[in-house]
Backbone:
């Protein structure tokens, strides 16, 4: 029988193990994706190093690579964002319909090849002032950067608890921010070589850690097969979470462009914000860290926008720094949220990651375009009006669309899915269930429900298939659990496997 999946049953006292439990912990998953005993100190260090590399990659891309291409090819950044959207859309399609295409070795080889080619092509394009060669080089660079970022997210999702994931995310991004602050900006060639080393190094150090989970994804059922049976296990493209990512990326992109005109603040508030968030995450015992990070991000971004219309020249560098600080806090939140979703449903990790980065690319492009347009057409006098309008839109959006939205609840509402080890054939599972049903004295209706539970079906699916009420389903499940001497759907599946 083809590989199937186990969805949480609404009537059981214990949830089945989360999707990541099999390759990483073997323990039950908590509602926020936490798994006691999973993800040791070594795994946390590796994940933190990968996130620091991701942060440095952004600094190298903007400070070195684009800086060398834009003087002779002004559309380079825009094309790169378009390439990113296309690339992430292809990754999402592969995860939904052909997960076998995401084989770890194959994707790592393609990624390394693209990055190596870009390292050769981009400097040659700059020397020849060739826009077509620059386009090719940037396309390869965009394609090569995706898979190491996905592996970093898998590594973060492997950690045991939501608290540990948040601390590792904050530590990695803080380390990357500190390094980019103190290191001199390299030339384009050195930047490309450094990006190649960082990305290939990320894949190398995370290989053993993420291989079990990625093998599960590539050999398991496609998301398109799982989503109709468990729609709550996946985050759609236009979910409030994705809209929030789009909006905050727009604000951060506008602040980044604004800093080109406003100068630099005496203190890098993004480093201060990342450090403060880390200290709070270490010592706080609150259970809603994701929502608290969101609140902090909102406060910093709104504060940055409110400083812009004051018309005080010295205030604008602080405004752009506040916007950058809000962006860093939201980046921590983004990594925490996506990894926690993946920890509950491994099959949702790649599609959610791809959707989030599509929104990130679109938000970056829209925010930068708005800032450049305002400066080019109206000059710096227009920034105050845009900032006021942006603040108004942000507040209205939060008030109308986010009064009842919770990042913590979004994570908890993701229905856990785990793969069920495949049988030799469909008849093998049915025959095994028949043998156990005969031995336990199950009724005909209980046998039907037993087989569906063994295939990973949940209460809603059984109710619709058999056209019976939820209470009737729960009653049958309770009786067959007693007869089979099991206490949860997971124990039932283990019984069938034995």
Residues:
């Amino acid at each position: 029988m083809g590989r199937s999946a186990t969805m949480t049953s609404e009537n059981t006292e214990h949830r089945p193990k989360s999707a990541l439990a099999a390759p990483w912990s073997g323990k039950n998953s908590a509602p926020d994706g936490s798994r006691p005993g999973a993800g040791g100190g070594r795994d946390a260090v590796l994940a933190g190093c990968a996130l620091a590399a991701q942060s440095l990659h952004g600094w190298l891309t903007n400070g070195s690579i684009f800086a060398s291409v834009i003087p002779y090819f002004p559309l380079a950044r825009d094309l790169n964002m378009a390439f990113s959207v296309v690339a992430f859309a292809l990754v999402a399609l592969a995860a939904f319909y052909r997960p076998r295409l995401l084989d770890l070795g194959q994707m790592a080889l393609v990624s390394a090849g693209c990055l190596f080619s870009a390292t050769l092509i981009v400097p040659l394009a700059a020397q020849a002032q060739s826009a077509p060669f620059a386009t090719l080089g940037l396309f390869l660079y965009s394609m090569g950067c995706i898979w190491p970022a996905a592996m970093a997210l898998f590594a973060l999702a492997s950690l045991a608890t939501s608290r540990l994931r948040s601390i590792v995310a904050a530590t990695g991004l803080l380390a990357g921010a500190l390094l980019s602050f103190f290191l001199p900006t390299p030339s384009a060639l050195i930047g490309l070589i450094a990006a190649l080393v960082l990305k290939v190094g990320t894949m190398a150090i995370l290989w053993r850690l993420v291989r079990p989970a990625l093998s599960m994804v590539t050999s398991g059922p496609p998301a398109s097969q799982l989503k109709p049976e468990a729609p709550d296990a996946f985050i759609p493209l236009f979910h409030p979470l994705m809209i929030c990512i789009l909006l905050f990326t727009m604000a951060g992109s506008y602040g980044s462009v604004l800093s080109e005109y406003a100068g630099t603040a005496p203190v890098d508030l993004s480093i201060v914000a990342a450090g403060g968030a880390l200290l709070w995450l270490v010592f706080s015992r609150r259970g809603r860290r994701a929502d608290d990070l969101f609140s902090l991000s909102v406060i910093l971004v709104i504060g940055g926008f409110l400083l812009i219309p004051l018309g005080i020249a010295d205030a604008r560098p602080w405004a752009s720094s506040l916007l950058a600080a809000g962006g860093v806090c939201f980046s921590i939140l983004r990594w925490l949220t996506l990894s926690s979703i993946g920890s509950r449903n491994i099959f949702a990790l790649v599609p959610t990651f791809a959707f989030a980065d599509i929104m990130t690319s679109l938000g970056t492009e829209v925010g930068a375009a708005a800032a450049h347009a305002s400066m080019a057409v109206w000059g710096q006098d227009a920034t105050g009006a845009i900032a006021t309008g942006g603040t108004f839109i942000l507040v209205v959006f939060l008030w109308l669309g986010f009064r009842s939205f919770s990042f913590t609840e979004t994570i908890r509402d993701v229905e856990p899915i785990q793969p069920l080890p495949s049988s030799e054939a469909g008849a093998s599972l049915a025959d095994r269930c028949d043998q156990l049903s005969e031995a336990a004295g199950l009724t005909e209706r209980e046998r039907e429900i037993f087989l569906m539970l063994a295939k990973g079906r949940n209460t809603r699916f059984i109710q619709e298939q058999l056209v019976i009420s939820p209470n009737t389903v729960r009653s049958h499940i309770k009786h067959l659990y007693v007869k089979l001497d099991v206490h949860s759907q997971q124990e039932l599946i283990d019984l069938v496997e034995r």
Observations:
- The beta strands are 4-7, 417-420.
- The CA atoms of residues 94 and 101 lie 6 Å apart.
